[in-house]
Write a structure and sequence with these properties.
Blueprint (H helix, E strand, L loop, with lengths): L4 H7 L4 H48 L18 E6 L4 E4 L20 E7 L5 E8 L2 H8 L4 E8 L2 H4 L2 H41 L17 H50 L6 H29 L7 E4 H11 L6 E6 L3 E4 L1 H18 L4 E8 L2 E8 L20 H6 L7 H11 L3 E5 L6 E7 L12 E5 L1
Length: 473
């Protein structure tokens, strides 16, 4: 059954600090109540046991003074001030000063086999007496009273701690006080602990998409809150870098798209303004060329966006050595390609994406090669390593990472292929990363040397050694 909003707010407050304090205080109240009740019982039992022991001792001491023909007046020497000697008819034979003039304190008549009994006797006025009822021993009865049974009652008025609810009130007050102190301690500790989370939340609330430079405060040590703060700061750092990359990407993309669009608009406007001077067929051919370049850029941007977004692609076992040979043989004409591959280079990946990487590397190598391109697919430890080398001018060390950035094209590349999108190598590296591999440019005696590394399927690590099985020239 759903609680009304008012009751829900009362019993299920939103504040975690309040919830924990209420729970801890409630549990403390329950446990302290159980402990307090046990202590009360022990105190009551202890006081009663002590009074009854004193009463039995006082009764024994008095009976020791009674002799045939001599029944002394009881003179209490302890708090047991009510002492009466009563005959079998209930008549008081002797009484202490406090018990004189009072009727028999009790009507109890202990039997011979159980001569001593403890009792609490209360009057109609509500006054209670704690006493020990003792039957005089048969031997003494015969010698002193000729066999008539006599009974001795020794006791005292019930102490105030037992007669009133003072003990219960004191215990209840102590329980409430201790439970309150425990609850306050939890409130204080929770405030210090949750205050760190509050500081993190407040800082996170100040962070906006336009300013991701803020960082949450990091407590010292390796507590859960410290680890949370460090994780949040690392996440913010990655988010800030990602946003910066997206902004650079948006800026670069808009520039790369604006340039061909501006050229296209200019040619079309010239054709409209000067119909007699501009050849419409030439304008259409130029427009188609620009459109093809725009289409290439948009397609590459979509591929790059899907890779950066981590969209899953269907993976399957692929013999990447055979794939390299197939793609090398598919290129006919132009700069010759020499390809060599080892057996059983089985990787888990997307065939379409891996084909795109190999094609991009081969196209790039053929574009810059002087006389030929060499492609080698081999096993190195637990990785398939595909090396694509050309004998062109190579890439300067300072440009080897820059060429993998989006829309970055070196002067030689722009000269050899003006219509390129500048996204091929960026896409290739992202595909390598999506396959848990790497794509780098390494040192080479001549030309450029691109090296693609992709992990092999574990079951294939120990298969046929890396012996060339296919070559193509």
């Amino acid at each position: 059954m759903l609680l009304p909003d008012s009751l829900r707010a009362l019993f299920l407050p939103d504040s975690l600090r309040t919830r924990t304090t209420m729970a801890v205080a409630g549990l403390a109240l329950i446990f302290m109540t159980a402990i307090g009740a046990s202590i009360d019982r022990l105190v009551v039992d202890g006081v009663e046991a002590q009074i009854f022991q004193e009463a039995q001792r006082a009764a024994g001491n008095y009976l020791g003074t009674v002799r045939p023909g001599y029944t002394p007046v009881p003179v209490p020497k302890t708090r047991i001030d009510l002492i009466q000697l009563v005959d079998s008819h209930g008549r008081v034979v002797a009484a202490s000063a406090a018990a004189a003039g009072r009727p028999a304190l009790s009507t109890a008549r202990p039997p011979v086999d159980n001569r001593m009994q403890n009792q609490i006797v209360c009057s109609a006025q509500g006054e209670c007496v704690m006493l020990a009822a003792v039957r005089v021993a048969p031997l003494e009865t015969r010698e002193i009273w000729h066999g008539e049974p006599h009974y001795l009652y020794a006791g005292t008025a019930e102490p105030a701690i037992l007669a009133s609810h003072r003990l219960a009130f004191l215990t209840a007050g102590g329980i409430v006080l201790i439970a309150g102190l425990i609850g306050w301690g939890n409130w204080w500790l929770a405030g210090r602990t949750i205050g760190r989370v509050t500081a993190i939340r407040a800082t996170m609330a100040e962070i906006t998409a336009s300013d991701l430079s803020l960082r949450v405060p990091e407590p010292p040590g390796r507590t859960e809150y410290a680890l949370l703060a460090r994780t949040a700061n690392r996440t913010l750092a990655r988010l800030e870098e990602s946003v910066k990359q997206q902004r650079r990407f948006a800026s670069t993309t808009s520039h790369e798209l604006r340039t061909p669009l501006t050229g296209l608009r200019t040619r079309l406007e010239e054709a409209l303004l000067y119909p007699g001077e501009v050849d419409p067929h030439e304008t259409i051919r130029d427009a188609l060329a620009v459109t093809e370049r725009l289409e290439t850029i948009v397609d590459d941007l979509l591929v790059l966006a899907r890779l950066r977004a981590g969209d899953p692609a269907a993976h399957e076992p692929i013999d990447i050595g055979a794939l390299v040979i197939e793609e090398a043989t598919a290129e006919v004409g132009g700069v010759p390609v020499q390809a060599r591959a080892c057996r059983d280079l089985i990787v888990m990946g997307s065939r379409i994406q891996l084909i795109r990487v190999v094609d991009n590397l081969l196209t790039n190598a053929r574009r810059h090669a002087g006389t030929g391109v060499q492609v080698v697919a081999e096993r190195v430890d637990d990785q398939a390593v595909i090396t694509v080398c050309d004998d062109g001018d190579g890439i300067a060390p300072q440009d080897r990472e820059r060429v993998f950035e989006r829309f970055v094209r070196l002067d030689d590349g722009r000269r050899r292929e003006p219509g390129g999108s500048g996204l091929g190598l960026a896409i290739s590296r992202d595909i390598a990363h999506a396959h848990h591999g790497t794509l780098r440019i390494e040192d080479s005696p001549r030309g450029a040397r691109f090296v693609l590394r992709i992990p092999l399927i574990p079951a294939m690590h120990g298969s046929t050694p890396g012996i060339p099985v296919e070559e193509f020239s």
